[in-house]
C-alpha cells in the first residue's frame, strides 16, 4: 500500500508544480487554491508512504515522479524543448526511479 501512496503523492506533486504555473504567482484564486490543495494532499500521501518506506528512497521517488511529470507536461502544454539531450536526461530520471524501486 505504501507504494500506491507514494505513486499518488507523486501525481499530486505534479499537480502542485503545474498549479504554480497556472496560479501566476498566487494571483489567481482558483488555481492558487487547487495548487495549495494538491500540495497538502501530496504531502499527506507522502507521510503515509513514509510509515514503511525508507525516507531517502521515498523522497527521491516522489521528487522523481514530480520532475518527470512536469517535464513531460511542459513539453506538451507549454512547448518546452524536446531535444534529445533533454529527453535523455528525463530518461535518466526514469531509470533512477525504477532503480530505487527495485532496490528499495
From TrEMBL:
One MF term in the entry's GO annotations: transmembrane transporter activity
The subcellular location is: Cell membrane
Membrane topology qualifier: Multi-pass membrane protein
Give the stretches traversing the membrane.
Answer: 29-47, 59-78, 84-103
**GO process terms (BP):** xenobiotic detoxification by transmembrane export across the plasma membrane
Q: Which Pfam families match?
A: Multi_Drug_Res (PF00893)
GO cellular component terms, semicolon-separated:
plasma membrane
User: Keywords in UniProt for this one?
Assistant: Cell membrane, Membrane, Transmembrane, Transmembrane helix, Transport
**What family classification does the UniProt entry report for this protein?**
Belongs to the drug/metabolite transporter (DMT) superfamily. Small multidrug resistance (SMR) (TC 2.A.7.1) family. Gdx/SugE subfamily.
Instruction: Report the NCBIfam families cross-referenced here.
Output: PRK11431.1 (NF008512)
What protein am I looking at?
Answer: Guanidinium exporter
Q: Which organism is it from?
A: Stenotrophomonas panacihumi
Q: Give the source lineage, highest ranks first.
A: Bacteria, Pseudomonadati, Pseudomonadota, Gammaproteobacteria, Lysobacterales
Amino acid at each position: 500500500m505504501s507504494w500506491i501512496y507514494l505513486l499518488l503523492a507523486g501525481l499530486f506533486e505534479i499537480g502542485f508544480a503545474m498549479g504554480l504555473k497556472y496560479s501566476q504567482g498566487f494571483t489567481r484564486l482558483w488555481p492558487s487554491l487547487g495548487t495549495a490543495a494538491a500540495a497538502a494532499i501530496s504531502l499527506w500521501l507522502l507521510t503515509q508512504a513514509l510509515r514503511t518506506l525508507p525516507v531517502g528512497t521515498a523522497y527521491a521517488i516522489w521528487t522523481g515522479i514530480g520532475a518527470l511529470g512536469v517535464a513531460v507536461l511542459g513539453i506538451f502544454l507549454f512547448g518546452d524543448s524536446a531535444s534529445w539531450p533533454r529527453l535523455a536526461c528525463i530518461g535518466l530520471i526514469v531509470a533512477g526511479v525504477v532503480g530505487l524501486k527495485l532496490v528499495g
